[in-house]
Structures are given as structure tokens and as C-alpha cells.
Design goal:
26% strand, Ribosomal Protein S5, domain 2, 322 residues, binds (3R)-3-hydroxy-3-methyl-5-(phosphonooxy)pentanoic acid, 2 domains, alpha+beta
Length: 322
């Protein structure tokens, strides 16, 4: 029977995290570590999922029960994507396999990547035409249903790839022309829980609305500058902007001992600037650093107990693999 394989890139947030939840812009880059999703029609009335990355082998669910009973955490996005698709279109047995090129612990956006890959593969398998912005909306609704919160920036990165200027819910999505972004990525070794951190910031905003809104406005100004400076390759200025963005993230309370240690070490070793990337609390940090000092910065991150991840930014968006 027909089989379709799709692949999607992971992502890293460059500027504007958290503020982007509140109708503001951010800058996100797709990374060249890809997620694979294979779908195949099978006989019978169930879906069979193999997702070794989240420790799931031969998970079975009757089509009639999709979304109705308890779902293991790692499979909520898979099940909700199939349920949403079947609600509108076709029904039938499916075998689904997901494979990671990278650990889902890194915070490269595995949930969004799997959702986009699976949605694309299902539309392809059943020959349902869909425009890119409609596919964005379909996937964004899946994420909101499963997670309750989220700006959709990770969906956009998985779908369109490249380096994007993105406003909450996809109100604006613009591809920036950026080449050879000189970035070093360090993993803290700590897995962060995005919804918890988003709720934490929401609570701070409830308690101190004026202060937090002012920080978000400052971040917006940074994102607008970064939008101009990335295509011009103004790495030094962008580095300084990263330091400023990191200061606000610290005030928001989302940095951590590990993130402070790794960003501090990177800057001390000669990076132009460094910040956490994403929700905070753990996951990855990024540093802008010229070629000459790159090795020094990588060594400093390792000496500070970080793991340097070799990734390239600006990767291609979702694609069907032959
Ligand atoms: O934790 P990550 O890498 O998925 O990033 C979350 C970024 C937030 O702005 C905090 C949330 C969002 O959906 O935009």
C-alpha cells in the first residue's frame, strides 16, 4: 500500500520568546536536524504508531477512540493530528512511524515538527490539496488543542524553514535573507517544560502588568532591529542585542543557573553576545561568535558543563522524502 515520508526541521528561537505569546514578533530559525514521519495505509480500523524517540513501540488505537481516552504524552500531537484530519477527510487504518535525527530533549521543537510532518504526509497520502497557510492553521489548531498555549512560531519554522520574522498565530510570517549565521549552540542538559514557563510569565504579567508590558515592548524593539540586521550580517550588533534580550529574560525569571553559566562562559570567551533560546528553564542557549573565536567559545561552553550541538541554521522547511 502507498507510503509517504515527510521530513521537517527543528527550530531555535533567536529573539523575542515569551513576548511572542502576547501579540508581538519574534525571530526563529529552522535547524538542520530533521524529524521524519512515515504514514502508510493499512487494513483495519486502527492506527499503529512507532515512535522510538519517545519510547513508544507498536502503540495501537481504534479510529473510533481517537482523542477520546487517555493518550501517552509523547503521542498527543500524533493522535490529535490524525483525529483533526479524519474529522474533515478520510478514515482508515494507518501505520505511523516517527524518527528523530536529534534528541527531543534539546528543545528543538519535536512536537511541532512531528505535527507538521504528519499533517503534510496525510494530505499527500490521501491527495487532499491544501495551501501552505492553511496547513499552518491546521497544525496550529492541533498544538493549541493539545497544549493550550503557544504562539505557533515552531509550526512556522517546521513548515517554511529558513529564518523567519513571525508574529503570534502567524499574523505575519516573513522569510529573512540570512546566510552563514555564525552561531554556537549549547545544551544545558536540563529539559524544560514550555507550558509551565509560559504560565509562570503569565502570572508575573498578571501581578506586574505595566512592568512586564514595558519589557515586552523593549523586546519588540530588539526584534525589529534584528530583522534589519540579520540580512545585513551585522553580527556584532546582533550579539549585543542578544545580551540585552537575555537581560530581559532574566528579569522575566525564565533563565536558570545553567543558562546563566553557559551564556556567561560564552561571552567571557569572546562571543559577541549570548542568550537562552526558547521558553528558558533549561534546553539550549545560543551565542553569536565570529569564526576566529568559535573554538574558544565552544570549549568554554563545554568547560561550563554544556554540550555543544553542531547545527546549521536556516534549514529547508517540510518536504516529502522520496
Ligand atoms: O520552549 P520552546 O523552545 O518551544 O520555546 C517557547 C517559546 C515561547 O515564546 C515561550 C512559547 C511560544 O509558543 O512562543
Amino acid at each position: 500500500m502507498k507510503k509517504i515520508k515527510a521530513s521537517t526541521p527543528g527550530k531555535l528561537m533567536l529573539f523575542g520568546e515569551h513576548a511572542v505569546i502576547y501579540d508581538r514578533p519574534c525571530i526563529v530559525a529552522a535547524v538542520d536536524q530533521r524529524f521524519m514521519v512515515t504514514v502508510e495505509e493499512i487494513e483495519g480500523e486502527e492506527i499503529v504508531v512507532q515512535a522510538p524517540g519517545v519510547g513508544m513501540h507498536d502503540y495501537r488505537k481504534k479510529l473510533a477512540d481517537l482523542g477520546e481516552t487517555r493518550i501517552p504524552k509523547g503521542l498527543r500531537f500524533v493522535e490529535e493530528t490524525v483525529r483533526s484530519f479524519y474529522e474533515k477527510h478520510k478514515n482508515g487504518g494507518l501505520r505511523i512511524k516517527t524518527e528523530n535525527h536529534f534528541s527531543s530533549e534539546f528543545g528543538f521543537g519535536s512536537s511541532a515538527a512531528v505535527t507538521v510532518g504528519l499533517a503534510k504526509a496525510l494530505h499527500e497520502l490521501f491527495k487532499v490539496e491544501i495551501l501552505e497557510h492553511e496547513l499552518f492553521e491546521f497544525c496550529y489548531q492541533v498544538v493549541l488543542k493539545v497544549q493550550g498555549v503557544g504562539s505557533g512560531f515552531d509550526i512556522a519554522a517546521a513548515l517554511y524553514g529558513g529564518v523567519l520574522y513571525f508574529v503570534t498565530g502567524g499574523k505575519r510570517i516573513e522569510q529573512l535573507k540570512v546566510s552563514n549565521l555564525p552561531i554556537v549552540v549549547g545544551y544545558t542538559g536540563v529539559k524544560a517544560d514550555t507550558p509551565t514557563l509560559v504560565r509562570q510569565v503569565a502570572e508575573l504579567r498578571r501581578q506586574h502588568p505595566i512592568r512586564v508590558e514595558r519589557w515586552f515592548e523593549e523586546m519588540t524593539a530588539m526584534v525589529e532591529k534584528a530583522k534589519r540586521w540579520f540580512p545585513q550580517g551585522e553580527w556584532f550588533k546582533l550579539g549585543k542585542l542578544m545580551d540585552e534580550n537575555q537581560e530581559i529574560l532574566k528579569k522575566l525569571g525564565v533563565s536558570s543557573v545553567e543558562l546563566d553559566r553557559l551564556t556567561g562562559a560564552a561571552v567571557k570567551a569572546g562571543a559577541d553576545g549570548a542568550k537562552l533560546s526558547g521558553a528558558g528553564g533549561g534546553d539550549c542557549m545560543i551565542a553569536l561568535v565570529g569564526e576566529k573565536k568559535r573554538r574558544m567559545v565552544e570549549k568554554a561552553i563545554e568547560a561550563a558543563d554544556g554540550e555543544v550541538l553542531k547545527v546549521k541554521l536556516g534549514a529547508e522547511g517540510v518536504r516529502i522524502e522520496k
